[in-house]
Amino acid sequence: MIDLSRSALILVDIQNDFLPGGALTVPEGDRILNAVNTLAARPFRAVIATQDWHPKNHCSFTAQGGPWPPHCIAGTHGADFPEALTPTPVTHIVRKGVLQDRDSYSGFLDNDRATSTGLDGLLRGLGIEHVVVCGLALDYCVAATALDARHYGYRTDVVPEACRGIAADPGSALEKLKKQGVLLKSVEAC
Ligand code: VGL
Ligand code: ZN
Q1: DSSP states of 117-177 as a string?
Q2: Would you say the CB of residue 141 lies under 6 angstroms from ligand 1?
Q3: Is the CB of 61 under 6 A from ligand 1?
Q4: Vertex 65, ends 70 and 63: CA angle to 5°?
Q5: Which keywords, in A-to-Z order, does the entry hold (predicted)?
Q6: Phi-psi region of 113 (alpha: psi -120 to 50; beta: other; left: phi over 0)
Q7: Ligand 2 centroid vs 52 CA: distance in angstroms?
Q8: Whose CA is nearest to atom 3 of ligand 1?
Q9: Average pLDDT for runs of 10 along the chain of length 190
Q10: If you ran DSSP here, which 8-state letter would residue 70 be given?
Q11: Euclidean distance between CA atoms 46 and 35, whole angstroms
C-alpha cells in the first residue's frame, strides 16, 4: 500500500496542445482525463502538474531545426491545462522547456542534464519519498520524468491507463521503465 502522505502525484504535460485538436496531438490523449481526475482525488501530499512552456522561437520547433511543430508556447491556449482537468486539485506547477536553446522532456532536468526545473528540491522539501506519474506523452516526457524520479531515488510508479504515447505501441517505453525499477500500477492500486 502506498503511504499517500509521503507521495506526490505528478501530472506530466496534460495541456491543450497535446490533446485532440492541439498543435502536437497525442492520439487519444483526452482518454486519460477521467483516470487522472480519479487519481488526483486521492489524498496525495501534493499534486504537481508539469507544464511544457516554450518561447515562440524554441529550439525544438521545426523552423529552428528541431523535431516538433510549434507547441505549448508560453501564455497561449495550447499551453493551458484543459478545462476537463478543472476538478483536479493541483498544488504546484513546474514549467519546463522555458529556455530558448534547450529542451526538457523530463520534469526534473533539461535534456542536456545541466539545468534543473527545481522539481527535485520541491519534492524533498515536502518530504516526498514516492511519486506516481501519469500524463502525456508516455514515450517522451512521462518516461523521462519517471526515469529521473528513479535516478533521484524516489520510489516511482507509472499508471499506464492514465498515459498515452505518441508512438502507436508504447511497449518499448514501458519495458525500459520496468528495467529501471519503475512499477506499473492500475488506478485502483494507487
Ligand atoms: C513533449 C514533445 C515535445 C511531451 C513535449 O510532453 O511528451 N513531447 N514537447
Ligand atoms: Zn515541448
Answers
A1: -SHHHHHHHTT--EEEEEEE-IIIIIHHHHHHHHHTT-EEEEEEEEEE-SSS-THHHHHHH
A2: yes
A3: no
A4: 45
A5: Hydrolase, Metal-binding, Pyridine nucleotide biosynthesis
A6: left
A7: 5
A8: 68
A9: 92 98 98 97 97 98 98 98 94 98 98 96 98 98 98 98 93 96 96
A10: S
A11: 17
Q: In angstroms, what is the span from residue 115 Cα to ligand 1's centroid?
A: 17
User: What's the complex ipTM?
Assistant: 0.98
* Residues in the chain, total: 190
| Catalytic residue of the set 52, 72, 96, 103 | 96
Q: Where does residue 152 rank: exposed (0-12), middle (13-18), buried (19+ CB within 10 A)?
A: middle
User: To which residue does cell 519495458 refer?
Assistant: 175
Q: Which atom of ligand 1 is nearest to the CA of 52?
A: 5
pTM of model > 0.90: yes
Dihedral in degrees, nearest 10, Cα atoms 108, 112, 115, 116: 10
**Rounded-to-integer distance, Cα 51 and Cα 157, Å:** 20
Distance 137 CA to ligand 1 centre (A): 6
